[in-house]
Specification:
Bound molecules: 5'-O-[(R)-(carboxyoxy)(hydroxy)phosphoryl]adenosine, zinc ion
Distance between the termini: 10 Å
Mean pLDDT: 94
Structural class: alpha/beta
Low-confidence stretches: none
């Protein structure tokens, strides 16, 4: 088998990431994040993210060159995240990738960021062990969707949120509790099942094949926090975070169960930043799937260039 080497560039949100894949395995990656700067604004400001990508893209590339895992002349292709994402941020990666491909006279592969998330677990799995079709839950700061994946190029959207993304809800609740950005990891750290005693859900939401919807639920949690503040009552942050995490994760699990049962599909995967959630990862086991594909390397749940190279390799070199 011919060794194929791809360099990939990811700049869709607030992470500037470059990775190198050789023969299906990620051999190098460097990621610089602007999350700490975004934290001072309470969320991602597109122009700030784009400016940080401009500052970070050359140092990221320089690190890859310094690591000497690959000689640029041995590259077979350049891949980059073409969509979806913040347009001003995507532009930085696109300009860099296009220039590099033109300078090296190598093919340029455009990758859909979401498809990268779907196959990100391959970082830890062998392609030969992958069974199709599988259901893929992608939950991040910008997306909450379930796909039926028949092959790398045959991916059907079954469900997506009609309002907020689930990561966005984690971030907004965390912000109102002054836990910083990104909020998901902070809430997850405070999770304690014994403390999940509040029910914010007033009526059943996200039932069966209804499109995901989280904004009404988010408002209920935020209202509770505001009412406690107005009554000058001390906030029991552990109880609020634990109860919220338990309820929102169960909405995701119930939806996966619905599609497993109705479509009779027994292989499932998760991806996206929220896939790093400890409760979500535990609860996936309760679905008793034949095969469960989870990015074991937690860093691969969030945005990274490795998943862009992994997907480019699948569709371009079929490996
Ligand atoms: O995939 P990602 O890095 O960027 C987007 O494409 O949006 O996802 C970021 C999101 C943020 O909303 C962050 O709060 C959430 O993923 N997140 C988590 C956890 N780690 C990151 N949410 C819940 N639990 C976590 N452990
Ligand atoms: Zn993402």
């Amino acid at each position: 088998m011919n060794t194929k080497n791809i360099i990939s560039i990811e700049t869709s949100c607030d992470d500037t990431s470059i990775a190198v894949i050789s023969n299906g395995k990620v051999i190098d990656m460097c990621t610089l994040t602007s999350a700490q700067i975004q934290n001072t604004f309470g969320g991602v400001v597109p122009e700030v993210a784009a400016r940080e990508h401009e500052n970070n893209i050359i140092p990221t590339f320089q690190t890859i060159l310094n690591n000497k895992k690959i000689d640029l002349n041995d590259l077979d292709a350049i891949a980059y995240t073409a969509c979806p994402g913040l347009r001003v941020s995507l532009n930085v990666g696109e300009a860099f990738a296009t220039t590099l491909a033109s300078y090296l006279d190598k093919p340029l592969i455009k990758v859909n960021h979401i498809y990268g998330h779907i196959f990100s677990f391959l970082y830890d799995y062998e392609l030969k062990d992958l069974q199709y079709p599988f259901l893929s839950l992608i939950a991040s700061g910008g997306h909450t969707s379930i796909f039926k994946v028949n092959s790398p190029t045959d991916i059907e959207l079954l469900n997506e949120t009609k309002d907020d993304a689930v990561g966005e809800v984690f971030d907004k609740i965390a912000r109102s509790l002054k836990l910083g950005y990104p909020g998901g990891p902070a809430i997850d750290k405070l999770f304690n099942p014994a403390k999940a005693t509040i029910s914010f859900l007033k009526h059943k939401q996200n039932y069966n094949n209804e499109p995901f919807s989280f904004s009404g639920y988010k408002t209920q949690v935020l209202n509770y926090i505001n009412q406690q503040n107005m009554k000058s009552q001390p906030l029991d942050i552990n109880t609020i975070c634990s109860s919220f995490q338990k309820e929102i994760v169960s909405m995701l699990i119930d939806k996966l169960r619905y599609y497993m049962d109705t479509l009779n599909i027994n292989n499932i995967s998760i991806g996206g930043g929220v896939a790093a959630n400890s409760l979500l990862q535990n609860q996936i086991a309760t679905l008793n799937a034949k095969n469960t594909y989870i990015p074991k390397t937690k860093m691969l749940c969030g945005d990274n260039a490795a998943m862009i190279a992994i997907y480019a390799n699948l569709i371009y070199f079929n490996m």
